[in-house]
Amino acid sequence: MQDELTIETKQATEAKTDDNNIVIKVEHLQKSFEDNKVLKDINLTLCKGENLVVLGRSGQGKSVTIQCIVGLLDYDEGSLKVFGKEIKELLEDELKEIRLKLGFLFQSGALYDSMTVRENLSFPLTRVLKMKDDSKINQEVEDVLDAVGLKDAIDKMPGDLSGGMRKRIGLARTLILKPAIMLYDEPTTGLDPITSKEISQLIMDLRKKYQTSSIIITHDLACAKITGDRILVLHEGKFIAEGSYKDLEKSQDERVNSFFK
Ligand SMILES: Nc1ncnc2c1ncn2[C@@H]1O[C@H](COP(=O)(O)OP(=O)(O)OP(=O)(O)O)[C@@H](O)[C@H]1O
């Protein structure tokens, strides 16, 4: 009898072959900074509803990959398609439209320290979506705070929150625009192991609630285990392994199994 893991992997493979199911497709992506060739040959596919983890040590090009996807960095060679559209070929307005579908959670959470939580969360609604109706704005803010489990923090200042709470608010700030794709840049960095686990669990809960597809870049193995349907291991600008946590845990490749020791 096939175990659950085999069935899930088979479903992921079948889903990958169906183009309608693909939300991000990256082929042979290359990026250098002067003579520092950071991305040598990046290939990845993100399917609808999937959580894809990119695991890699420091300096391997994880953040550069994400920044290329959101159009913050230009790539030199290769193809990068989001919802079937080549990012490099988009006009500014088209790129803006695509960016609205991408939620990028920065490592820092990117909160404004001089604004309350309510103001931090209202800001994207008024600035990006040009919403004006205060009662609608308040409702959206309350709903997203409820989703991240922090309804009581609405009138607090970011400086009065713990690291884990700030992460949750950062997440809420990204989610309030209801992106179809979430890009997490090291979501558990700087958190203790218990809080990290809570944030990883929250990522899972939010996928269900908001129906997002996500790329999660991390070097936190516990986060990869909880959140990753599929894991890619990045090493020196290329992916050297792909599989479920259970697959990769058994890898004979020293560069892969060194993560699991
Ligand atoms: N804007 C930039 N200009 C020049 N070099 C850069 C720039 N951004 C990144 N790099 C270089 O690219 C390489 C990969 O950086 P990147 O931040 O993607 O690593 P990472 O895998 O995300 O590591 P970490 O886990 O430490 O964040 C590093 O050598 C870095 O110095």
UniProtKB/TrEMBL annotation:
GO molecular function, one term: ATP binding
Domain ABC transporter span(s) in chain numbering: 24-261
InterPro entries reported for this sequence: AAA+_ATPase (IPR003593), ABC_transporter-like_ATP-bd (IPR003439), ABC_transporter-like_CS (IPR017871)
Nucleotide-binding is among the record's keywords: yes
Cross-referenced SMART domains: AAA (SM00382)
UniProtKB keywords: ATP-binding, Nucleotide-binding, Transport
Entry-linked Pfam families: ABC_tran
Superkingdom to which the source organism belongs: Bacteria
Family matches, as PANTHER family: INTERMEMBRANE PHOSPHOLIPID TRANSPORT SYSTEM ATP-BINDING PROTEIN MLAF, PROTEIN TRIGALACTOSYLDIACYLGLYCEROL 3, CHLOROPLASTIC
Protein name: ATP-binding cassette domain-containing protein
